[in-house]
Amino acid sequence: MEFLRLALDEARKCIPSPTAFCVGCVLTAAYPPDSQPVIISRGYSRELPGNTHAEANALAKARQLSQEELAVLFPSASRPIDIDTILTHADIYTTMEPCSVRTSGLSPCADAIIAARIKRCFIGVGEPDDFVKCEGAQKLKDAGVEVIWLSGLEKECLEVARMGREH
Ligand SMILES: [Zn+2]
Asked: Is the pLDDT reported for residue 105 higher than 90?
């Protein structure tokens, strides 16, 4: 829940859009696997150039980390530290269900999470059918990603998602 709150902080950084949600996300990993999880990266909607999404941005930022930065995060990992290996031990916390369809033609976040072989996906709230019907959680499950619906912050996640809109 702590990480979902941090994801909500990310979502609040979004520049509101009338045609898109404001979503925040935090990527954590425990590596070696029995260690305490640390935050690898954070992301929010439209943070990186282009009509980008929170989850894809957090993944992109994780892949941009230097060896020095990774060594600080994962002091007992053997060098060189391979971010792709780290990601297979990662959890993603997102304020809203990762998208399964993108009307813009960009790659959906669910696909990016599956491709990175993220272990678990914690979700704050399901995507309402404001724009498209979202099947992200099902898509993740079908690909073997463990999906965990967190309860308690649904209202906040949805409110932030709809910032800058009427309802
Ligand atoms: Zn997305």
From this structure: no
Active site residue 55: yes
Catalytic residue (choose from 2, 10, 47, 55): 55
Residue 106 structural domain: 2-161
Q: Say how many Å lie between the CA of residue 149 and the centre of ligand 1.
A: 17
Please check whether residue 167 lies inside any domain of the structure.
Answer: no
Task: Judge whether residue 167 has pLDDT over 60.
Answer: no
134: number of Cβ within 10 Å: 21
Buried b (16+ CB within 10 A) or exposed e, 17-39: eeebbbbbbbbbbbbeeeeeeee
85-104 average pLDDT score: 94
Q: How large is the average pLDDT for residues 73-93?
A: 95
Sheet holding 24-29, edge to edge: 38-44, 24-29, 90-94, 120-123, 146-149
Q: What pLDDT is stored for residue 18 in this prediction?
A: 87
Cα 156 from chain centre: 17
Please check whether residue 166 lies inside any domain of the structure.
Answer: no
Domains contained in the chain, number: 1
**What's the whole-model pTM score?**
0.94
Q: Identify the helix (H) or strand (E) that includes residue 26.
A: strand 24-29
Are 118 and 91 in contact by the 8 Å Cβ rule? The answer is: yes
CA of 111 to the centre of ligand 1 (A): 9
